[in-house]
Amino acid sequence: MAEQWQNSRGVGRRIYVQGKLILDTPTHLGNGDTESLADIALLWDEVERQRPLLTGASLAGALRNYVREFEAGFGVAEQKDGALLAEQLFGYLQGYEATVESWLMVDDALGRLPDAAAVEIRDGVAIDPKTRTARDKKKFDVELLPAGTTFDLHFELWLPQGDEARLRAFVMALSGLEAGKIGLGMRKRRGYGRCHVNGWQVKDYDMAQPAGVLGWLNHAFAPGDPVKPVAAWFPDAQMGVSNGRALHLKATFNLLGSILIRAAGEEGDGPDMVHLRSYRPGNGRVPILSATSLAGALRGRALRIANTLGKNPGIIDDMFGRQIEKAEDKPTGSRLLVRETTIDNGIADRVQSRVKIDRFTSGAYPQALFSQQPVWAKALTPTQLTIYLELRQYGDAAAEFEAQAGLLLLLLKDLWTGDLALGGESSVGRGRLQGEKATIEVDGQTWTITRQGEDGQLQFDGADPKLLEEKYLATFKTAYGEVTA
Prior knowledge:
By secondary structure, this protein is an alpha+beta fold. The chain folds into two domains: 11-233, no CATH class; 246-347 and 374-478, no CATH class. The chain contains ten helices and 25 strands. Strands 12, 15, 16, 17, 18, 22, 23, 24 and 25 form a nine-stranded antiparallel sheet that branches. Strands 1, 2, 5, 6, 9, 10 and 11 form a seven-stranded antiparallel sheet that branches. A three-stranded mixed sheet has the order 14-20-19, with no helix packed on it. Helix 2 packs across helix 4 (164-178) and helix 9 (398-416) crosses helix 10. The radius of gyration is 25 Å and the shape is globular. The mean pLDDT is 89.
């Protein structure tokens, strides 16, 4: 018995933390059910059937991944030796034999939908890059929790006396949630699952003091307990700077004409085709540019550029993730993160009727009248949307990262000039954009590109614009080799 007591974990400090998680974009927390009405269904609590469930395992996995990437960089695997902070906090498999338990307890969280919103249904489809049409048997629909859904998070952290490393890792994870840098659920790299926490309630008990033990035994949060950022609760926990290398691109565009991304499940008595809308707290259902549509358009154009220049198409799989064509294919995650964005100041209630023309008679085709409700650009004030992209370097592949950054600059050029259309019906002029301003950040340097005047001259501010050409575009021209027959 005495020997077992000596094997105690020696918990000298117990920290309880709770906060309210708020979804910023639609989120899918799945249940794996294949018998639902939707192809990919949401997970609901078995007791309170009307409340979505965020499992502690999913949340802990997202936090662990963020802490590991913050300390070691993107695409760096754990070594199972406890050297990384993520392993020390969340546990690891020591030498692939014995398990070292987690010091952080993460509770399941029940969600609450906004009063004015319901579960959203989104269509998904795979596009053939050669024909630019939908692939056969590749359409699916997915259930999503609307933006504004909230979850009450609860954590309990055990610490030995004087253990600052695990506390620093915990503060790192909570800071990531505060800053909206940790995504949850499915397709986080395609705009879903963005979330944030405004502040935390904290109870910190010193188990070496009688008052701390009594406080722990009577532990409870009160509604009036202060809510503060994690840095205010633990000012001495130094997180440092993230070791992940990434390029951040923010670009604002004017819409030229109209854009149409078809929505699923619209009312039967409405127009035949309606632009996609999504709920946003305080604004209701607003027209959006979905990240899945944007990423698909970028991937298709990137493949076209690579083929035109005779590049190895492996750059597309590395940058956007490998698509599964055969059973033996191994999937990979996308290194390019794309956000979902709203379309501001557009006309979204104008319906256009169109008719199919018989090419033989040049008359109207029988029973081929249909109506569409795209988002139209205004004439006097610009209809704008802002695109956010993040390209990450995985491991020590610096040359690959810089080549992919060069390809991303070419994609920005095509979007900027309106050569790359977004959404459907690009053949009739929809989906064209005109660049107004772009900001590029990488390696501590910032470039700002602004469109000037009626002739569209570009003004560069910040770092030397020649560096973009000499470093990133030049690397793309030489990397990934030529395609061999």
